[in-house]
Specification:
heterodimer; A: 331 residues; mainly beta; four-stranded antiparallel β-sheet; 2 helices; 28 strands; globular; B: four-stranded antiparallel β-sheet; eIF3i (chain A); protein biosynthesis (chain A); translation initiation factor activity (chain A); Eukaryotic translation initiation factor 3 subunit I (chain A); initiation factor (chain A)
């Protein structure tokens, strides 16, 4: 823990106060100048990463917004909500250009590599099975999904596109990790590395590997092509979100107790830490305090010079690393 | 077929045998002539039998001349009464030459039916247990500790190599215990709980040493010498009504068992320091002191003490302390008595006593009796006493001084957590009530007085944990308090560190007094289960948080040192020469450890780079496809730099407001 003391420098976080309810996801655009945040309130927001000033909110949803994604060219934003709809927005104007209705809450969404298709996954609820839907968004209106696939067993809790968008990588409530070829309607591969629900999956910048965050108190580094487990990062609490630094061999974890488990310890000031692990050595080397509740979503800036965390407390904190962070080495 | 269905009902059919379980045979009686036989009968009934229940039948057989034959038969109304009588009067002496030998009539039949041919018992094969103390001879004198984790389903024993505890070979076992781990007092054995009873493990490989049968044991106790094990189980049956059993550790044999009559705190039987005696109180009536290895009452009888409430042994001498409640005619008393002589060495009268609690100094140098006294006493409707205005007195008995003088301290506040400093002469307690703020108060027992040396105010503390070698103490707020830990060096009463282990439920010093471990146990809190290891000065050394759902952390105790006080003094005097050698060894091992760590990391790095190289190959192979999908190269953040648009943003750095009262005149 001697390394810990080195990083206890004061990193000046910018606090983005825009949401009345818990944050569900925070995302950057590819260039790293915009931050997208969505929460359990119906208005996702877009912010300037430079100074934390809000560009605007996206108005249109009627329920909690579970997911948000920005297209690679930053022109369009995709959101999925508990109001049984997913919406496509124009980033610059904030106008909703497309809206599709689904049978149940949209849990994950994402643009494919080219930015011409959008994938949605919906929750399993009252008569409707968990479903993956693919839409061609060049069509206007998008109308019916180009294809869809039912997920019979454990519902999908997190999903991302695989390399070249040939398949989806899905994380399930029972800890399963699958490669799904939606167009061919088949499960290419399933691996069980986790013992609990997979809360988040984040791709490394080149898409060749990804990190999973799970309720089983661990985050794991896995390759995209064969779903082979390579590293495991252990903590004492459920991990809600994790991300890999594009710049240094570091993995960032955020988590905490589930909402219903929070008892008196919840009031403990700034107890919920963002945890940094060395990617290769699997050792925790730093913690950053600040949130008053569990951290629900984390992300490194695309240039790796900072990171953002969104919490159950409704706050989004944007941090920039001090010079020491870039020089810091494990012996 | 019908008989099978009624099987369970048939089992309840009254059977002839039952009648015999309430009959006892009393032998060892004097042989008297017909003139005195009636007097003998009355004597036996009065002294031994009537107090245990109703004697429905009594018979003392005689020979043809009317002389008694030396034994008698009696029948009680219930089996329970006969059993009570048996326990009580077995071995009682009538006079110098006659001792009662009592047994159940049913046993008599069993003995009479025994084989005529005597078969010599089979020789049990010799089992070499190996060296049960092997762990004490570890190179660097590291201690061991046991951790019960994964919600209690896995237990692991570790070597405490500071910063890098290593599991002992073959000492990680699934379902090793069904409830908790329990080390024997000198650390020789590890006891585990099972539905069928207790198992003891020990030796280098933690092999099973012995098993003790007792269904559903809930709690156990060892004699301080580890020769005996006492178990308690609430599951009693008609055939086996004894809830408390005592076993000999070496042989596994049950030596004695007892009924558990009244609600009592565990341990019900308290051991003397060498395991020669164990005693319990029959509240209000008597002290029962038993001796080993016979397991019978000392001098064959209880010590009758009216209104006796509780007893406690000195941890270093065969002195028994007990207190007697006050009655209308007599004040309360605390009495110290030596065993086996039963000589009173100290008595203290106490007035206006509501309750007493005895706290022995760990080295037996002092006994502190905490006395709750009242200013007024009322009697409730049902004659239970109600005490008004309780204040506390501490009566300190100086055990090592001639005539054992007693000194008193009075405290008006509410008091809790009284603890003695081991190997020292201080004691500490928490005073006050939570709503007004608790204080921790330290006292020092000097040659001629007891001095209040320090009061630490506004401390949210519910546990005072002293180092086993004295001097250092941790004030902790466990469980519902915030896990605050204050480390204090009592030689100068300075706080050496303030730490926090949020949610900590337990705290334990290692047997050498070098380390303190706080644990958040899964049994109380379901998250953040981990153990934190601190130095005696409060520096956090490392956290044991990679094990899931830790339930219990328990240091392995050590037997007391074999060095004399003189030798210890010499070692302390020559500390410099000893520490030089150890520092050299420490340096060597830490460079070795860091060398190993560096090698491990180098290996991991090479492995990782190989893995990444393979993935990068795939990535590069797909470049063409990526270009097609997006129309531009986006592999790096600046790959499409030609598309970058430069934007200038202006942010006001400072905004200043200047008030203009009058606009300047504008010349026309």
């Amino acid at each position: 823990f001697s390394q810990l003391s080195q990083l206890n420098q004061i990193m000046k976080p910018i606090c983005l106060l825009g949401h009345m309810r818990s944050i569900t996801q925070v995302r950057f655009n590819r260039d790293g100048d915009l931050i997208f945040t969505c929460a359990k309130d119906p208005h996702p927001s877009i912010w300037f990463a430079l100074n934390g000033e809000r560009l605007g909110s996206l108005v249109g949803h009627n329920g909690a917004v579970w997911c948000v994604d920005c297209r690679w060219d930053s022109e369009k934003v995709l959101t999925g909500s508990a109001d049984n709809s997913a919406k496509l927005w124009d980033t610059e104007t904030g106008k909703c250009v497309l809206s599709v209705d689904t049978n149940s809450a949209v849990r994950s969404c994402g643009f494919d590599f080219a930015g011409t298709s959008a994938m949605l996954t919906t929750d399993k609820t009252m008569g409707y099975k968990c479903t993956i839907l693919l839409y061609d968004i060049r069509q206007d209106p998008a109308g019916q999904p180009a294809c869809q696939m039912l997920v019979p067993e454990s519902k999908i809790t997190s999903a991302v596109w695989g390399p070249l968008s040939r398949f989806l990588i899905t994380g399930h409530e029972n800890g399963d990790l699958c490669q799904m070829d939606v167009r061919a309607q088949k499960v290419i591969r399933t691996e069980k590395h986790h013992k609990g629900a997979i809360n988040d999956i984040r791709m490394y910048k080149d898409g060749t590997m990804f990190v999973t965050a799970s309720k089983d108190h661990t985050a794991r580094l896995i390759d995209s092509y064969e779903l082979q487990l390579f590293k495991t990062y252990k903590t004492e609490r459920p991990v809600n979100s994790a991300d890999i630094s594009p710049l240094r061999p570091h993995v960032l974890l955020g988590g905490g107790q589930e909402a219903q488990d929070v008892t008196t310890s919840g009031a403990h000031v700034g107890k919920f830490d963002a945890k940094f692990f060395h990617t290769v050595y699997e050792e925790e080397f730093a913690r950053v305090k600040g949130h008053f509740g569990p951290i629900n979503s984390v992300g490194f800036t695309p240039d790796g010079r900072g990171f953002v965390t969104g919490g159950e407390d409704g706050f989004v904190r944007l941090h920039s690393f001090d010079n020491d962070y870039f020089d810091f080495e494990f012996e | 077929a019908r008989l099978e269905l009624l099987g369970d009902i048939l089992a309840e059919k009254p059977q002839e045998k039952k009648a015999i379980n309430n009959a006892l045979v009393l032998s060892g009686l004097p042989i008297v002539d017909s003139a005195r036989i009636e007097r003998l009968q009355v004597f036996i009934r009065d002294k031994f039998l009537d107090k245990h229940g109703e004697v429905v039948k009594f018979s003392m057989p005689t020979d043809e001349n009317g002389n008694s034959l030396g034994f008698a038969l009696c029948c009680f109304q219930t089996d329970q009464q006969a059993l009570d009588a048996l326990t009580d009067i077995q071995g009682a002496s009538l006079d110098k030459m006659h001792t009662l030998n009592v047994f159940k009539f049913s046993d008599f039949n069993r003995l009479a039916d025994a084989d005529d041919e005597w078969k010599p018992p089979e020789k049990a094969p010799f089992v070499d247990r190996g060296d049960l103390r092997s762990w004490l001879r570890e190179d660097r004198c590291h201690d061991q500790f046991g951790v019960l984790h994964t919600a209690g389903s896995v237990a692991t024993i570790y070597w405490h190599w500071p910063g890098d505890p290593q599991p002992v070979d073959s000492a990680t076992r699934n379902n090793w215990t069904e409830s908790r781990l329990h080390w024997s007092p000198l650390g020789t054995y590890l006891a585990t709980y099972h539905t069928k009873g207790i198992a003891l493990w020990g030796g280098e490989k933690f092999e099973q040493i012995n098993r003790f049968q007792h269904k559903n044991v809930q709690i156990i106790d060892f004699s301080p010498c580890e020769r005996y094990l006492v178990t308690f189980s609430p599951s009693v049956t008609k055939e086996d009504p004894h809830a408390i059993k005592m076993f000999e550790v070496d042989t596994g044999k049950m030596k004695r068992s007892f009924l558990h009559e009244q609600a009592a705190k565990w341990p019900v039987f308290k051991w003397s320091h060498k395991g020669e005696f164990f005693a319990r109180v029959q509240t209000g009536k008597a002290l029962q002191v038993f001796e080993t290895p016979s397991f019978s009452l000392l001098d064959k009888k209880s010590i009758s003490v009216q209104d006796v409430q509780d007893l406690s042994w000195s941890p270093t001498d065969n002195i028994l302390a007990y207190w007697i409640a006050e009655t209308d005619n007599q004040p309360a008393r605390v009495i110290l008595m030596t065993m086996p002589e039963k000589r009173e060495v100290a008595t203290k009268m106490l007035f206006n006593v509501a309750d007493c609690r005895m706290h022995w100094h760990p080295q037996g140098n002092y006994l502190c009796v905490r006395v709750n006294r009242y200013t007024k006493k009322k009697l409730d409707a049902d004659n239970t006493p109600k005490y008004i205005n309780i204040y506390t007195n501490f009566e300190v008995f100086r055990m090592r001084e001639k005539n054992i003088p007693v000194e008193k301290i009075e405290v008006t506040d509410a008091v809790s957590c009284f603890t003695w400093e081991p190997h020292g002469s201080k004691f500490a307690m928490v005073q006050g009530i939570a709503s007004k703020g608790l204080s921790v108060v330290f006292y020092q027992v000097n040659a001629h007085d007891i001095e209040k040396v320090k009061v630490l105010e506004k401390r949210n503390v519910n546990t005072i944990s002293w180092s086993p070698i004295g001097q250092h103490v941790v004030l902790a707020g466990l469980r519902s308090a915030n896990g605050g830990l204050e480390f204090i060096d009592t030689s100068d009463m300075k706080t050496t560190a303030n730490q926090e282990h949020f949610g900590a439920t337990d705290i334990e010093w290692d047997p050498t007094g070098r380390y303190v471990v706080t644990t958040v146990s899964f049994w109380h809190v379901k998250v953040d289960n981990a153990s934190h290891v601190y130095s005696s000065h409060g520096t956090l050394l490392y956290k044991l948080n990679k094990l899931e759902r830790i339930c219990q952390f328990a240091w392995r105790p050590r037997p007391p040192t074999l060095l004399s006080d003189e030798q210890i003094k010499n070692i302390k005097k020559n500390m410099k020469t000893y520490s030089r050698r150890f520092e050299k060894e420490d340096l060597q091992s830490s460079t070795r450890a860091s060398k190993e760590l560096l090698e491990k990391r180098a290996r991991l790095k090479t492995e990782y780079e190989k893995w990444r190289a393979k993935l990068l190959e795939k990535f590069r192979g797909e470049k063409q496809k990526r270009l097609e999908l997006r129309g531009v190269d986006t592999d790096e953040l600046d790959s499409n730099a030609q598309d970058f648009v430069e934007e200038t943003l202006e942010f006001p750095i400072k905004v200043e407001r200047i008030r203009i009262d009058k606009l300047p005149q504008v010349a026309e």
